[in-house]
Amino acid sequence: MNKLNYKILLALFFISNFIMAQNYNDGYRLSEQTIDFDARTLALGNSTIATFGNFSSALINPAGLGTIRKNILKFGINSSEFDNSVSFFNNLSNSQSENTDFSQFSLVLPLPAKKGSAVLAFGYQQTRNFNSALSFSGFNSGNNSMIQDLTAFNEDIAFELGVSYPVYDSEGNYLNDETSINGNLRQIGSIKEDGQLKSWIMSGALEISKDVFLGATFNIISGNYLSNRNYTENDYEFDNYTGLLDPQDSSTLGFESFKLNDIIDWNISGWDLRLGLLYKPNSALSFGATVKLPSTFNIEESYSIYGKSYFSNNVFAVDQPGTINRYEISTPMEISAGFSALLPLVRVNASAKLVDYSQIEFKNGFDEEILISKNDEIKEVFERVINYNIGLEVTLPYPTLKLRGGFIYNPSPFKGDIKDYDKKYFTAGVGFPVTGNILLDLAYIHGWWNDFGDNYGVEVSRTYQDINVDKLVMTISYSFM
Predict the structure, then answer these.
(1) Could you tell me the CA-to-CA distances from 475 to 41, 56, 257, 302, 429 in Å, in that order?
(2) pLDDT tens digit string along 80-102?
(3) Which end of the chain is flanked by fewer CB atoms within 10 Å, N or C?
(4) Is-contact 385 413, C-beta < 8 A?
(5) φ, ψ for residue 346 (rounded to 5)?
(6) H or E stretch including 12?
(7) What H or E segment, with its residue span, contains residue 159?
(8) Coil, strand or helix at 158
(9) Of 335, 352, 354, nearest in space to 292 by CA
(10) Strand (E) or helix (H) holding 378
(11) Is 183 left (phi over 0), alpha (psi -120 to 50) or beta?
């Protein structure tokens, strides 16, 4: 079989398995626990599953809405900064990403009820922010490179960029591609991620018996995600490759640099359903529990690859604009429970959430064999975790002022991860009345964790990341009858 015919068959395979290589990271991106709520909830470490309601109860415990007695109009904004310090072959780099968004708009409406209470809530909430940044640069003295990886797993791109060449048997039949590159290159790269998930919320709660509330929330979800990766390998410093990369092609003389830019662009739509219970045995103590049923996300994905390679007297280029692929991801059920206790001047909240990330599942958009393979990989990589939230609220009567603090602990769901990869957040905030019916809440959050990423292969070109996140949230509430 000649090189051209083999490439046609190979391209069909790699479109579904390499170039469009959806994997467990895509499922985790949509399943990861959000921290984005209104300022009061965030300042309390998102621990309000068993406290009196506000609009964020629609996403934390919709039964809490049943405790609201006034009409409430609310809107909020948040500003965040993502800071990533990266170690790559003992070289340190730092990247930052900042963004400010309109994060919430809501209306809560108690309904007339002869007995108990009935409350409806409608609104918009930004439930997840995908913004992040990473950059790195270092000399990899090992005998590996992205070029070698592409030659082994995606021969088309390496071949078109002139960094690999075909090998034939004695009868002229194509065998495989090889490359003269054998590592010892400087590797430089950056990854920029943007996007968000938005929930359009419809929620309601009923007091079905004295101090027993039931609630439900239906979310229509939309959003986008964009990942833009730039990666370079060059031989400017040591001139290890001054000869021909392809022995039969004089235009491959004097390799200088290889550059690859790949872009993932998602349009996201979906829905989820949450059910909640709130019970107040007395005025000082309350308990809450919720179940979020598995969410279904529809992904419309465009994947584009652009590349160039530079030689002494020539430049090769690849231009593969995005082709559309559609598929579904189902995220796992979440089960939560917690309590709230009112002490003199202080309210204490605590909650826990069980999530089994091994239940992430790809659906539709792939052949049955590929689906099975992807979902088996998810079960091998992920495990069940319990997330913890705690919060304290101190009320100062003169002037009426509420001081808040909290802690969020989200363990890494990847099997074998050490504690350094768990996500931890300290939260703090304050709430006070501006007028008799206008409340202003402010919250600050600081989060930190470690992460790593492989440019290719496993632990041969790895970035070690020290991540810090800071967020400031402001919410204004207007109460009216």
Answers:
(1) 10, 11, 50, 36, 11
(2) 999 999 999 999 999 999 999 99
(3) C
(4) yes
(5) -130, 135
(6) helix 3-14
(7) helix 155-160
(8) helix
(9) 335
(10) helix 368-381
(11) left
Chain Cα centroid distance, residue 40: 23
> Is 41:475 a contact under the CB 8 Å cutoff?
no
Query: Among candidates 247, 224, 266, 129, which has minimal Cα distance to 178?
Result: 247
For tokens 């998930």, name the residue: 197
Where exactly are the structural domains of the chain? 3-480
How many CB atoms are closer than 10 A to CB 76? 27
Residue identified by tokens 């929620």 is: 203
Selected from 3.30.499.10, 2.60.40.3580, 2.40.160.60, 3.40.50.970, the CATH number assigned to the domain covering 3-480 reads: 2.40.160.60
CA dist., res. 8 & res. 341, Å (int): 67
316-366 confidence digits (pLDDT tens):
999 988 788 999 999 999 999 999 999 988 999 999 999 999 999 999 888
The residue with tokens 């002869």 is 114
Whose tokens are 């991620």? That residue is 193
Give the gyration radius of the chain's Cα atoms: 27
pLDDT of residue 10: 33
Q: What is the dihedral of CA 453, 36, 228, 224, to 10 degrees?
A: 130
The pLDDT tens digits of the residues spanning 366-407 come to: 899 999 999 999 999 999 999 999 999 999 887 789 999 999
Q: Is the pLDDT of residue 6 over 50?
A: no
Q: Exposed (0-12), middle (13-18) or buried (19+): which is 187, by Cβ within 10 Å?
A: buried
With b for 16 or more beta-carbon neighbours within 10 A and e for fewer, the 108-144 pattern comes to bbbeeeeeebbbebbbebbbbbbbbbbbbbbebeeeb
Measured CA to CA, the distance from residue 41 to residue 420 in angstroms comes to: 26
Q: Which two tokens stand for residue 167?
A: 């090998």
Q: What is the mean pLDDT of the chain?
A: 92
Residues 6+ apart with CB under 8 A from 72: 54, 55, 106, 107, 108, 477, 478, 479
Cα 366 to Cα 190: distance, rounded to the nearest angstrom: 30
411-470: pLDDT as tens digits: 999 999 999 999 999 999 999 999 889 999 999 999 999 999 999 999 999 999 999 999
Q: Which residues contact residue 180 at a Cβ distance below 8 angstroms, ignoring those fewer than 6 apart? A: 241, 243, 244, 245, 246
Best CA proximity match to 298, nearest among 364, 210, 218, 249: 364
Place of tokens 């359009």: 200
| Mean pLDDT value across residues 244-270 | 95
CA angle, 49 then 51 then 57, to 5°? 55
Please say whether the beta carbons of 278 and 268 come within 8 A: no
Distances in whole angstroms, Cα of residue 323 to Cα of each of 19, 179, 228, 253, 329: 10, 28, 16, 33, 19
State yes or no: cis peptide before 399, omega within 30 of 0: yes
Query: What end-to-end distance do the CA atoms of the chain give, in Å?
Result: 79
